Amino acid sequence: MSQGHALDVFEKAKTMVFPRTVLAGHGVLAKTGEICTSLGLSSRGAVIAGKVTDRIAGQPVTEALRKEGYEVRTWIAGEPSLDEVNRLSEEVRAWGGRFVVAVGGGSKIDIGKVIASKLKVPFVSVPTAASHDGISSPRASLRGDREAFSIEAVVPSAVIADTSVILSGPFRFLVAGCADVISNTTAVMDWRLAQRLHSEEFSSTSAALAEYAAREILEHAREIKPGKEESVWLAIRPIIMSGIAMAVAGSSRPSSGSEHLFAHALARIHAGGALMHGETVGVGTIMMMYLHGGDWQGIRNSLQEIGAPTTAEALGVSGKEVVTALMNAHTLRPERYTILGTTGLTQEAAERLAHVTGVTTRAA
Question: d(Cα 32, Cα 46) in Å, to the nearest integer?
Fold first, then answer.
C-alpha cells in the first residue's frame, strides 16, 4: 500500500453508551434487585435519595435490593451542589459502594449520576418524578456559587420508572417533563441550522430519536391528564427516549437549543422564586419555533392542552424579564450556534417576538 493511499484510510470512531435496561410500568420498584443482578452488579449498593423520596420509593428499592442479597446503605442528599456531590462521593467511596442507585426527582438523579461518574461505578436511575429528560441522559445540572451549570456525568446502566410512584407526585412535574421533550423540535432545528451554516457534526440517528420523542408527546397531548396513570405511561417513555438521544449524540444538542438558552437566561435574571426548567423551556420553544418559521401555534396549543404555561404571566415572570432574556440568550453558550445567531435579538425584535406569540400581552 502506498503512503498516499494509507493516508486515505478511514479511521473515524465513536463510542455510544446506552442504558442496558429500561423498565417502566406499574409496581416495577420491586424488580430493582432483579435488574441489578441481571446487570451483573455486585456487593454493595449506595442509595442516594431525598427525605421524602426515600420514604416513597427509596425504602422499597432498598428492600428489593436486600432480597437479592445486596448490602445496601442509604444517603439522604441535600441540594445538588458540587460540595454535596464531593461529600457524598467520599462517604460512598469510604464505605466501598460498588454501584449507585439514585431515587428521586431531577436533583437527586443528577447527584447520583455525578457520584457514579466520579467513582467510576455503574449507575441506576429510579425517578420519582419526570420533570425533565435528565432521568436517562448523561448530563447533570449542579448549582455553583452563583448559578447552575451542566456537566457530563454517566449514562445510567438502567432506568426503573414506576408509573404508580410518579403518579403520586405533583402533576406539574410531569407537565414540565413533557414540555422539555416538546422542546426537541426547535433544538433539532437549531442543530440542523448549525450543520448547514457552520458544518457542525450532526447525528441523524440522535435527531430522529429526539424528534420521535417530541412527536409522541405532541400527538398524545390531549390524553395527558392529572390523576391518570396512563398519562404517566404515555409521557415517561418519550422522556426517557429524549435522554437516550443525548447519549447517542454524545452531547445535549438534540434536546437543547435556543429555547434552553432562553430558559437559562430567564432563570439568571428572574427576581422571584426558582422557575421550573421544563415550563420555561416550553415557553421558549413557542418563540423559537416562530423564529424558525414553523408551527408555533401548534406547539402553543399542545402545551396548553397538557396544562403547561404559555405566557409570561403563567410563568410568574414579567414581560421585561422575557425580553431581556431573549436579548441575552445567545451569550450563554457562544459555541452553540442557534437561530439566535451570534448577535442575538434587538430589543425591538425581542418585544415583537414575545408579543406576536402571545407570551406577553403587549409589547414591553
Answer: 13
Strand partners, 161: 24
- 200: how many CB neighbours lie within 10 A of its CB? 16
What residues contact 8, with CB distance under 8 A and at least 6 apart? none
Rounded Cα gap, residues 254 and 186, in angstroms: 9
| Separation of alpha carbons 270 and 162, rounded Å | 34
Q: Which CATH architecture has domain 21-169?
A: 3-Layer(aba) Sandwich (3.40)
CB 162, CB 25: distance < 8 Å? yes
Give 254-297 pLDDT, tens digit per residue.
999 999 999 999 999 998 878 999 999 999 999 999 999 999 99
pTM attached to this predicted model: 0.90
Q: Which CATH number fits domain 174-356: 3.40.1190.20, 1.10.10.10, 1.20.1090.10, 3.40.50.620?
A: 1.20.1090.10
